[in-house]
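Customer escalation, tier 2.

The customer says the design service returned an amino acid string that "doesn't look like it belongs to this structure." They asked us to rerun it and document both sides in this ticket. The original structure tokens are below, unchanged.
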């Protein structure tokens, strides 16, 4: 008799391990990290160390140099788009909020133009290895790419719709190329997938059952075609309940294919991490979080007239995220040529150069022990504290008392720092010539045995 443990046929016909799935499902509903199972804590370990990732919002809409999906949806300002593109009711209550966004999503693109952009999509300069190399040089440890945004266009060779990248003149599986390039470069690969779909004929309040079959097929296809997908970034606000997507069965399928996958909080469950958007998340060590931010205020490419934030600002975002105990997922909006906007590459390269010398104060650290403030933030690992001074106060830089004794203080990039520790607190000073913009990192080493928690 063959041993069932080594017999693939016997394994395949075995009932799925429901207890492991039930644990996964329970963990997705458990917001606070400490309350999750050891399995969930293991799953998130790499992501937590990583701190810095690249978001990629790119599809044929880059040809219109207007916002991905929303520029089509909001070309009429009367709310008509909601009639033309019926969406499940919860969102209808938010028309108001969407009206406010109208300006933001200009220039609006008429539907008859938008829906044909893919016919001219030929990003001839696209080179996935080069793309990923930019992320790597920036010190990013993972990359999350849009596979399908709300507009329904698919950036991979899916067999479930023609509205996809193989039906452009480019005729190349862009998502697949990126997945393999990430693998080669040792960068973790994640996929953004919008459950909303303003192109699919079956998407709408009364028709979700049929649409969900499409959604399930696509998620299964992605996880099967690209075995290195380590993270799923869904994108529907929390007021869409998971029941709408038959979430329990969806996650059962996901778990069967990728038991170690990470899932964000935009599929009706708290998931593995929260996703504050266009702002640094609040200090929180109980709940994992990742801020997603743009260089231009727009997700997709918006032309060269859209200003790009300076390098210093990008660096401050990263430092503030790490100091709040969160990650930064910094977005790039590639050009229709397939290249990262050279201004964004420039900023990224400079952040990478900074990380090459200051990485130990970011990767694998926790936020704290002291709270963020106008001065900057603190990060820590073991008995080392990194004080990131982004803005020197007029007076003294003071912190609340610390239980462990501080043994040494120095500036990470060289130079000395003075530190005075009393029962009243900790005072830090650095001579003017040793202060560095945009971030003076002061390293405090505590005495052996002390921990900063
Ligand atoms: C918001 C935007 C969407 C974008 C996403 C990224 O949901 O509406 O366009 O893709 O944020 O987090």
């Amino acid at each position: 008799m063959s041993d069932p443990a080594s017999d693939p046929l016997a394994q395949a016909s075995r009932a799925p391990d429901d207890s492991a799935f039930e644990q996964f499902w329970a963990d997705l509903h458990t917001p606070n990290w400490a309350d999750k199972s050891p399995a969930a804590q293991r799953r998130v370990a790499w992501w937590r160390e990583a701190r810095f990732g690249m978001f990629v919002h790119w599809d044929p809409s880059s040809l219109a140099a207007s916002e991905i999906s929303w520029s089509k949806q909001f070309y009429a300002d009367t709310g008509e788009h909601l009639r033309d593109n019926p969406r499940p009711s919860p969102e209808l209550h938010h028309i108001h909020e969407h009206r406010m966004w109208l300006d933001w999503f200009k220039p609006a693109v008429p539907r008859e133009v938008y829906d044909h952009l893919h016919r001219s999509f030929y990003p001839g300069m696209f080179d996935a290895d080069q793309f990923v190399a930019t992320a790597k040089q920036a010190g990013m440890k993972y990359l999350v790419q849009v596979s399908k945004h709300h507009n329904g266009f698919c950036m991979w060779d899916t067999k479930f719709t023609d509205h996809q990248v193989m039906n452009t003149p480019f005729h190349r599986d862009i998502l697949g190329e990126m997945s393999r390039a990430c693998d080669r470069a040792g960068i973790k690969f994640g996929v953004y997938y919008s459950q909303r779909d303003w192109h699919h004929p079956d998407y709408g309040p009364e028709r979700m059952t049929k649409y969900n079959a499409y959604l399930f097929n696509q998620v299964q296809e992605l996880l099967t075609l690209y075995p290195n997908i380590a993270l799923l970034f869904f994108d529907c606000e929390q007021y869409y309940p998971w029941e709408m997507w038959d979430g329990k069965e969806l996650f059962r399928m996901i778990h069967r294919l990728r038991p170690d996958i990470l899932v964000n909080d935009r599929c009706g469950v708290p998931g593995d991490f929260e996703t504050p958007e266009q702002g640094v998340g609040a200090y929180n060590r109980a709940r994992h979080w990742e801020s997603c931010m743009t260089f231009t205020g727009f997700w997709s490419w918006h032309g060269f007239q859209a200003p790009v934030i300076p390098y210093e600002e990008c660096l401050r975002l990263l430092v503030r995220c790490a100091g709040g105990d969160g990650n930064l997922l910094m977005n790039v909006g590639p050009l229709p040529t397939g290249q990262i906007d050279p201004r964004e590459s420039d900023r990224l390269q400079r952040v990478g150069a900074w990380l090459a010398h200051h990485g130990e104060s970011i990767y694998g650290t926790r936020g704290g022990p002291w709270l963020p403030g106008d001065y900057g933030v603190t990060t820590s690992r073991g008995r080392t504290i990194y004080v990131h001074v982004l803005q020197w106060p007029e007076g003294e830089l003071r912190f609340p008392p610390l239980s462990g004794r501080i043994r040494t203080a120095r500036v990470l990039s060289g130079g000395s720092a003075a530190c005075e520790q009393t029962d009243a607190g900790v005072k830090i000073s650095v001579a003017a010539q040793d202060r560095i913009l945009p971030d003076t990192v002061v390293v405090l080493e505590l005495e052996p045995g002390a921990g900063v928690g």
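Tier 2 assessment: The sequence is consistent with the input. The pocket of alpha-D-glucopyranose is lined by residues 69, 235, 277, 292, 299 (CB under 6 Å). The first strand starts at residue 52 and ends at 56. Sent an explanation to the customer and offered a walkthrough call.
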